Amino acid sequence: MEDLASPECSGVDSKRILPIATNESVGSFPSRLKINKKRQEGNPLIKYIRNVVFEWDSEIKSDFECSRNCGIVYLSAKYHKLHPGYIETRLKDLSRYRIKVFSL
């Protein structure tokens, strides 16, 4: 039986090693994830983002941007209870994204 995690099956170049979490693009590897610096700078969950290159970007409308078409909003349950209409406001901000993800 073939090892489905092997480089041959996954199409991954085993000689190419991607860096572990950093706040800058590295060499020829473009960033894969953008994080809104204004909104997420103090978020304790940021330290758990690993094995993906990311960059801080204060210009994006979402909290996290996976691609030009995918925006993610992180909202704590405590904040939602205090400000229940906030989700609607943020949803309007995400109108340019085809895929909208809310993490609560």
UniProtKB/TrEMBL annotation:
<dbReference type="InterPro" id="IPR047260">
    <property type="entry name" value="ERCC1-like_central_dom"/>
</dbReference>
<dbReference type="InterPro" id="IPR004579">
    <property type="entry name" value="ERCC1/RAD10/SWI10"/>
</dbReference>
<keyword id="KW-0234">DNA repair</keyword>
<keyword id="KW-0539">Nucleus</keyword>
<dbReference type="GO" id="GO:0070522">
    <property type="term" value="C:ERCC4-ERCC1 complex"/>
</dbReference>
<dbReference type="GO" id="GO:0003697">
    <property type="term" value="F:single-stranded DNA binding"/>
</dbReference>
<dbReference type="GO" id="GO:0003684">
    <property type="term" value="F:damaged DNA binding"/>
</dbReference>
<dbReference type="GO" id="GO:0000110">
    <property type="term" value="C:nucleotide-excision repair factor 1 complex"/>
</dbReference>
<protein>
    <recommendedName>
        <fullName>ERCC1-like central domain-containing protein</fullName>
    </recommendedName>
</protein>
<feature type="domain" description="ERCC1-like central">
    <location>
        <begin position="37"/>
        <end position="101"/>
    </location>
</feature>
<dbReference type="GO" id="GO:0070914">
    <property type="term" value="P:UV-damage excision repair"/>
</dbReference>
<keyword id="KW-0238">DNA-binding</keyword>
<dbReference type="Pfam" id="PF03834">
    <property type="entry name" value="Rad10"/>
</dbReference>
<dbReference type="GO" id="GO:0006312">
    <property type="term" value="P:mitotic recombination"/>
</dbReference>
<keyword id="KW-0227">DNA damage</keyword>
<dbReference type="GO" id="GO:0006302">
    <property type="term" value="P:double-strand break repair"/>
</dbReference>
<dbReference type="InterPro" id="IPR011335">
    <property type="entry name" value="Restrct_endonuc-II-like"/>
</dbReference>
<comment type="similarity">
    <text>Belongs to the ERCC1/RAD10/SWI10 family.</text>
</comment>
